[in-house]
Amino acid sequence: MSVLEVHNLNKTFKGGLFEKDHSVLRNVSFRLPEGQTSGFVGSNGSGKTTTIKCLFDFIRPDSGQIHFFGKPLSSESKTRIGYLPERPYLYEFLTGVEFLRLHWNLCYGASLKDFYARADEALKKVDLTHVKDRRLRTYSKGMLQRVGIAQAILSRPELLILDEPMSGLDPDGRSMVKDILKQEQQRGVSLFFSSHLLLDMEELCQHLVVINRGQILYDGALKSFVNEYQSLEKAFSVLKGKEDARD
Amino acid sequence: MIKVFTLAKTTLQEMLREKVFSIVLLIAIALIALSFLLGALSLAEQRKILADFGFLGIEIGLLGVSLFSGSYLISKEIEKQTCLLILSRPVSRSQFMMGKIFGVIALNTLLLVSLALVLGGLLGVWSDIDTLLAYLKICLSLWFESSVVLGWVICLSLVVRPVLALGGGVIVFLLGHWLGDLTFFAQKSKDEFFLLGVRFFHWVTPNLYKLNWKSAYFLDTGIPLQNFFWMLAHMTGWMILLVLLANFLFRRKDIV
Hints:
The complex is a heterodimer.
Chain A: E1 2-13, E2 22-33, E3 37-41, H1 48-55, E4 63-68, H2 75-78, E5 81-84, H3 96-108, H4 115-125, H5 141-153, E6 159-163, H6 171-186, E7 190-195, H7 198-204, E8 207-212, E9 215-221, H8 222-229, H9 232-246
Parallel strand pairs in A: 3-7, 3-8, 5-6, 6-7
Antiparallel strand pairs in A: 1-2, 1-4, 8-9
Chain B: H1 2-17, H2 20-41, H3 46-79, H4 82-87, H5 93-123, H6 129-157, H7 162-189, H8 192-204, H9 216-221, H10 225-252
């Protein structure tokens, strides 16, 4: 079963008075297998973030269908999904624990049953227990990324969607984020994350979706993709080169 | 409703922690204090000056919150993309919008109650029930005025830049207050184009001219019940219309 199915997604941004319309997604279709980690790879401006934003209806696609767990996005499916945007600008006036409580309340209403245990668990995973009562304004970039991940895993989601979770982090930060993702993998969570760091993809993913200039170039097992070209980097550049030459 | 309440509480918390409330409160209290000092210069008109300037202080405080918060309320969330995490939760765009609006209205209510207590104490409105009733009606009209301006500014901020939305809010406020005078001049001039323009303004701006009760005169003579109910109906209608419009605009917006 697929946790996410995207079918023929199209999006064109309307240009201004003297600008042309800009087509960013063209018949984007892919599916994510349950319980696997899927990488979403593509160069800058290829349409990764726009696709992810379409998934959550932040950007309205012109056409196409998106199904989570076999159904269109709904409040029910949103409680089963954890999400972290590319640059997690958070409410900096809140403390770490208040920030988690806000997201808990939005998911489960006013009841705080289980909240403290779950918040402790999530904060421990991202190693932020010692700063949970400090305002987010005082957090470093890496800490903000980690508290963002804590909110994403707080509700123990079945599907985690992370947009460039390791961008802008130092090697320690990246390693910590990777460890967290591996823990979630072990828990059986389906992961979908975008990145242009191919090494991380190779390390973490079993499934791969490659996008270039708003079109899907590959959707399938990472292993068979790499086997053909020896490394993901090589495979990606060859496939991208072929596509660019065709255009 | 719990989600809307949670978002409203967070918005209020933001404004209280970001010192917006303290700054506006200080400015408004300074204006009331100034009116008290100005009133002291006059022997016969002390109460009149205190009431007129005091209400003006409250009005400026409430409008300041509505104009500045309203213009950046949603646009800041979109620009900084803080709304993405919220909307990825089981929260609809309408609930998000309502939460933000209620948060600012809660701040304005808090501000109004604080300032009204100070001014009411200085004016001694508690001694007479009729004066107290008139005072409460005037305060309510100020609350409605600021809420409607807030609605307008939020709607504008969803289609133009925040600074333009703020300017638009000021224009709506001024036009709303000038409607009576504009109608008078249009009728005098008998110019078709002028009359048409004023009629158009009547449709697109709330009639704040009719709510111009913030003076010692109305405090002493009272506000007829008929006018009060007209205010309730007119301003509630505008608020509902603007909230619906803001929701409609936000639902259609791409958060790029």
